[in-house]
Every structure is written in C-alpha cells, then in structure tokens.
C-alpha cells in the first residue's frame, strides 16, 4: 500500500533547517499522542518544531521541545504548549532508532508534522548525523550553483 505524498496544504509544521544542519540517513512516519486541543491548534497551522528533537526513554520515543500553541477557545481545558509528546512507532522501529542513537551517535530530528489522508496527525522523523562547518559550506556552494544554473537555463543562455 503506497503512502500518499504530503502536499503543501496538509503540512502543519516544517523543520527547514534540519536538512542544512544534519545529514539525513533515514526517515520514518510516527504517530503522536495528542490531546483534543492540540489537534485543533495543529489544524490552525501554527506549530513549531525547529528547535525540537526526539529521544528514547524507558522503551518509548518522546518528542521534546516542540511548540503547539494553546487553542484559545478551550479556556481552562487547554494543553501545555511545550509539553513532551509521546511518539507512536512499532517496537522494531523503536529498537532500530534507539540502537542508531546509542551505537552510531545519530540524532532523531523531526522534519515535519502533517495530517495524513485519514486526518491523523503524523510526524516525519529522521535519523540524522550532524554536519560540521565544511559540510555546511559545501551545501551552500551547491545550492548557489544550482540557483545559477536555473537562472542561466531560464534566460536561455543569452549573454
């Protein structure tokens, strides 16, 4: 069963800097344990995962430092905006992620939060390795070169 591609409309939060600061080794889709007010706040599209990360504790994967703003209509039944959120992954995936973090010094970085075709909030989680300064400079050079290439192709090679 093929996974439907995420479109721009159903992506709630995107960690755009992750691909610059980290070399992405592997990605997987994880569910999230959310309260009702968190889901409603996510549907408004104001969540932030730029400074967040995931960690394995006591046999469970947790999303730490993600920000889901309070849902204003919930009054006193609201959630805490920066609370730890449990991620739902299969046991085999959890063991593989925990092993990669412990053995190889990898990091679990959230890439985006989106709603799938069933309307459930999902998190795209990446196993990543941190880039050092020369790698980041190389990424910038490659990005600038691709931009110049596109500009030349658009102009049709005219000088």
Question: What tags apply to this protein structure?
Answer:
single chain, 159 residues, alpha+beta, 31% helix, globular, SsrA-bd_prot_CS, RNA binding, SsrA-bd_prot, SsrA-binding protein, SmpB
Summarize the structure in words.
It is found in: Cytoplasm. Keywords: Cytoplasm, RNA-binding. Its main location: cytoplasm. This protein is α+β, with helices and mostly antiparallel strands. It has one domain: Small Protein B, Chain: A, CATH 2.40.280.10. The protein is 31% helix and 30% strand. The chain has helices spanning 18-21, 36-44, 91-104, 133-155, and strands spanning 11-14, 22-32, 53-57, 60-64, 85-88, 107-115, 121-130. Strands 1-6-7-2-5-4-3 form a seven-stranded antiparallel beta sheet. A hairpin with a 5-residue loop joins β6 and β7 (121-130). The longest helix has 23 residues, at 133-155. The termini are far apart.
User: What spatial order of strands do you see in the largest sheet?
Assistant: 1-6-7-2-5-4-3
Estimate the helix proportion, in percent: 25-40%
CATH homologous superfamily caption: Small protein B
Structure classification:
alpha+beta
Poorly predicted runs = none
Q: Which series of helices and strands comes N to C? A: EHEHEEEHEEH
Strand tally = 7
CATH class: Mainly Beta
Shape: globular
Write down the Rg. 18 Å
Tally of DSSP helical segments: 4
In the CATH hierarchy, the architecture is Beta Barrel
Q: Kindly state the mean pLDDT as a whole number? A: 83
End-to-end CA span:
50 Å
Q: Which fold name is given in CATH as the topology?
A: Small Protein B, Chain: A
* Count of the domains: 1
| Main sheet specs | 7 strands, antiparallel
Portion of residues in beta strands equals: 25-35%
């Amino acid at each position: 069963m093929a996974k439907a591609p995420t479109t721009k409309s159903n992506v709630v939060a995107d960690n755009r800097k992750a691909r610059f600061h980290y070399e992405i080794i592997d990605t997987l889709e994880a569910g999230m344990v959310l309260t009702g007010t968190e889901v409603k706040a996510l549907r408004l599209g104001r969540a932030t995962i730029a400074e967040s990360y995931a960690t394995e504790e006591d046999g469970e994967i947790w999303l730490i430092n993600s920000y889901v703003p309070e849902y204003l209509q919930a009054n006193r039944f609201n959630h805490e905006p920066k609370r730890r959120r449990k991620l739902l992954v299969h046991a085999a995936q959890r063991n593989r992620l925990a092993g990669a973090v412990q053995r190889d010094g990898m990091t679990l970085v959230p890439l985006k939060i989106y709603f799938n075709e069933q309307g459930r909030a999902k998190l795209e989680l990446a196993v990543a390795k941190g880039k050092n300064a020369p790698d980041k400079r190389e990424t910038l050079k490659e990005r600038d070169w691709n931009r110049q290439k596109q500009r030349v192709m658009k102009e049709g090679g005219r000088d």
